[in-house]
Amino acid sequence: MTDQAMIIGFGVAMLFYFMFMIVLYVFGCYVLYRIGKKFNVGTFGLYLIPIYNIVLLLRCIKANEWYVLGFFIPFVNIALTVYLFGNIAQRLGKDFWLYGILTLLFGGIPLLFLAFDSSIPVNDSNYEFVAATQPPNPPQNYNPVIAVPPTPPNYLPETNQGVYKATPDLTNSSNIILSFLTGEYVGNQIELPANGLIIGRDPQQAGLIVNSPEISRAHLRIMPDNTELDCVLLEDLNSANGTFIQRANSLTSDYWEKITIVRMPINQIKKVMLAEQVIEFAIISSK
User: Fold this and answer.
1) Where in the chain do CATH 2.60.200.20 domains reside?
2) Is 218 helix (H, G, I), strand (E, B) or coil?
3) Which of 82, 175, 230, 248 lies 20 to 30 Å from 195 when distance is taken between CA atoms?
């Protein structure tokens, strides 16, 4: 074999090697993206950025993003690897130490299970997740109470933007205001009734009607939590496109986190979103 043939063969081998490494890197980033997607953190393109994809994973567990610097320090990076992936596993309802240690020992293999199984976040230290105790459809004695978005002190007349049904009941105040930031109710504020409110597309099931095909017939139930002052219960009623929140006073308050049912103080909620930017509102106290 001539020297020229050896050089060509070496060049072809290196080309295949680099192509394989690129494919392996992209697949690894996709695995991380799949994990982050469960927490609604980042896009696939962002996970392709080296180092920043670790920052995104730190956001998934609400850890300080500066921890990423520790991954460049010997021995500290070992502890942070266990800490990061153990906490991710724990938030997905799995064992902290099992996945933390296995990820340290076997690299990406345990991450494949976290990325491609059906697990979802089940716990959060900043607010309490509670088991759903009511069916998606409203109970028989549920009476829709707010249907017309008010511009205090008067109420807007019926428009072709939505089907407004029932009469607002302002006799029992919850001292909690829904301030709409986007969507057909933008600019309006509605006081949350003391017995709660269902937001959805179906006038027979919802008290506040949103005319969008992306909104489910009964999409979200929001209720004052009488066990704690200025606290609300948000329950996604098995909607097709989900309910999301942004948390206030947090380094990671710029991303949306999908919820099922949560109970938390209103001062910890920055915004609530139904489906993909169909409607957004803030929750504030009227006191």
Assistant:
1) 128-285
2) coil
3) 248
> What average pLDDT does the structure give for the chain?
79
Residue 281 and residue 178 in contact, taking contact as beta carbons nearer than 8 Å = yes
**DSSP assignment of 37-77, as one string?**
HTTT---HHHHTSTTHHHHHHHHHTT--GGGGGGGGSTTHH
Give this prediction's pTM: 0.48
Residue 35 near residue 56 (C-beta atoms within 8 A): no
Helices assigned H by DSSP within the chain: 3-37, 44-47, 52-60, 76-91, 96-106, 109-116
End-to-end CA distance of the chain: 87
Res 253: pLDDT: 53
Q: What is the pLDDT of residues 9-41, one digit of tens each?
A: 888 889 999 999 999 999 999 999 999 888 778
Q: How far is CA 54 from CA 49, 85, 153, 159, in A?
A: 9, 11, 50, 48
Joined together, the tokens standing for residue 59 give: 């956001």
